[in-house]
User: Fold these one by one.
Assistant:
Number 1:
Amino acid sequence: MGPLAPYEIISANTNMLLAFVIGIGFGFVLESSGFSSSRKLAGVFYGYDTVVLKVFFTGAITAASGLLFFSLFGWVDLAMVYVNPTYMHSAILGGVVMGLGFIMGGFCPGTSFCGASIGKIDAMVFIAGLFIGVFVFGEGYPMWEKLFMDGFQGYPKLSTVMGISDGVFTLLMIAAALGMFYVGEWAEKKFPQPEY
Amino acid sequence: MKTRIIISIVFLGLGFILAAIPQNTTLKYKLTAEELLTEANNSVMFYSPDEVAQLLIQKDPNIRLIDVRTPDDYDKYALPNAINIPLSDLLSETYRDFLDQDVYQNILYSNGTTDAVKAWMILRQLGWENNFVLQGGLNYWAETILNPQAPPSTVASDEIARYDFRKGASQSLGGGSLESTEASVSSAAPKPMVKSTPKKKKAQGGC
């Protein structure tokens, strides 16, 4: 949670409590935006509903430009921001598996819990499948440990890899997001779906 | 539809600003002024010359000596295995891995303590741990370790033991080179050393 936990301004327990509160807020927003419907997520892949794409890319460009402006004003130390380690092979494989699960199930892990909490049976089945996957991965870990750890590239940022500044990268991402929004709206008109 | 276009233009505008401004690469100070004052006041940063000599003789793998003087001074004389990071280049990206780490205890030294403490204050403010200062700097090092003065025979025995240790350290850490320069200044000093030689032997036997 922000610079609060690494600087030990708040304790680990307070951190968990804050995570709990934020999690409830997140779930509430997901539900009220209609993300607990599996059709909404699957719609991205068929082109009749691109809300998910729009929400996530709006989130990404808001957070990216916010962080850079905060850093410019000296409110946030970007060096403290956690960057995920990159394991190239498992990232590609995991992306494919997750994408297939998205299309088939119509949920991502977060929205499946949203759906389950308002009583959707398909969401509960999805969660059961999620736990089976977790169990198989955990129990079989020695079998795919090598693949899992393969292709480690450190903690790169896309901007560093491309050799441009964070600001230029954010501008490109904003342009790409706006382009995708435009294409998305066009697709929604092109592949209309009767009320669902 | 109109609001969407306005929001899109705003986002693009912000994007252009971000792309145009230089990145904020300022290193932020992490400690408050009060915290640093407390640490500085309690002299938590000091390693005494005796402690450092002890660690060097034991070849402790966890300590690393860092000479913050100019490269010229460093070339003339430096402590064994010390690396040179001039104070003026302290924040250079080249040295970041040496100073911001948790493997070694870095012991900074300069001729006196002023420059080393300057460096320590900056590093400590940045929140980097494991940096310390050789108390008294090279001057005090030369005085205590390389050319120890024999205490009068009336002092407490631990004082004499310390002197014996310094004598030994002086030999093992190559005090000879400095002795030659210092000897001319204080030619009377070697005399008491000779006088105390029997005591040293006694202490050695005790060990």
Number 2:
Amino acid sequence: MTTASASRTIRVETLARVEGEGALYIKLAGEHVTDVKLSIYEPPRMFEAFLRGRHFSEVPDITARICGICPFAYQMSSVHALEAALGVTIDPAVRLLRRLFYCGEWIESHALHIYMLHAPDFLGFQDAVAMAAQHRELVERALRLKKVGNTLMVVLGGREIHPISATVGGFYKTPRKQQLTALVPELEWALEAALQTVEFTSKLEFPDFEQDYIFVALHHPQEYPLNEGRIVSSSGLDIRAAEYEEHFVESHVKHSNALHSTLRGRGSYLVGPLARFSLDYEQLPREAQQAAVAAGLKPPVKNPFRSIVVRAVELVFACAEALRLIREYEPPAASRVEVAAGPGVGHAATEAPRGLLYHRYLLDDHGLVRAAKIVPPTAQNQKRIEDDLREYAARLSGWPLADATWKCEQAVRNYDPCISCATHFLKVTIEQERP
Amino acid sequence: MKIIACGNPYRRDDAAALLVAERLQAFGIDVEVCSGETSDLMAVWEDADRVILIDAVMTGAPPGTIHVWDSSVPGLVSGALPSTHGLGVAEAFRLVQVLGRAPACIRVYGIEAAGFELGASPSAPVTAAAEQLAARIAGEIGAHPCA
């Protein structure tokens, strides 16, 4: 039995259902949290270092290898940054296809996270397989939704993960209209399934927990953000991607192999579905807005546990947007523009499923990479996850240790963290100090 | 009949099944190569009522040992914890059973791995075992218990 004044530690040696390897350590003295460390011990992967000396044309295929669940976002942030560095203008049909590609990645990633990784927390199952025994329809829906996303990725990228079709200036090969229209019936099913996902998630039980977040996301006047826009925040920031490093600072902390990001003068901030929904609600298509309203969501959403509902609304968006883009698609005259090598510096930010993803490249006269900088969404959210836990763990001081640990893991999974990208397993420790 | 090989060519002995696949394909036998990710694997065996699944395993036996299981694999667990990338062969196996989607007949061949280090070449015992298993499967196809 734990008393209010007792001290204890919550320690999860290996946190499941997150991407990558890390540990969580929380120290409590009574109701006060005295220490929170989200420790990412996965070894650094050195992508920025081994991009140096590579020809710009090799970069998209290398950056696509950073992540198995959101490779296209990595590929696209690099393509856009390199196109900015080299002054490339792309065909509007290529832009449309890139947006469609993002939709495929979002459908795949969001469906998997909502149903297979996050829903078991809310329904009280150890994992999706245990959940499937009692909620077969949910798992069947998740698998079919993921397959829709995968199929889109295969048609556009040549394969489900680590796509090979995108290049600076366009695509090596663009699909025929008929290849895309063949996907419409399954995407129409997916849109219905996404609406059912919003309804399902909106009926889950959420802790009464809100945070005063600084949201950061891309903003585009006409579109819900995927591949371009200005970087805006709920605290008034409104900048070009090229200005990112003037406002955001990366720093090393002893307990993590991933760098912590902060907004200069403001501290931690949040990227991802909650930020996008809160800053870009007006740009959501009608179906997604209606689904959000029916689910009781209105911007800003400050309860991180409700991110599962917001993710479902974004699933509606991704399916509706994919259908719209396929209707509008006419194959471009040329799949890509020729790009001459040359010097330059280029910056870009796009919206990966987990949030804002920033890239910068410096090229020499031969188009070789002299410097590269990649800031993944999970690295940006890392400090914010710790801040959430500092508040949330304090409320769990009277809970049995096993339950408190489970709830802290769930709080981490609100973020769908991709620790692999940020630098794999998460260990959680909650320690209660003895008086 | 569908033969499925799961593995990662960049993680040492995780490439064991891929080595078997290469040799079977050289004999003119069709093999589906798959990362082993649950939903992909389920999609690959979706329409098959008879499946041979080949994967690297760790049971504590000497590296290169060839294991055979029919219809079930006792104590099967993934080496990695479930995640967006990490839902693996074990979860796929459990999931198809829970969902009632398991092939009517499945034989699993496991090659005992020495390790899964990034970027390393397959170990000598595993490479030799892959040769033996390919020859065995090629010879057994007509006599497969599911055939």
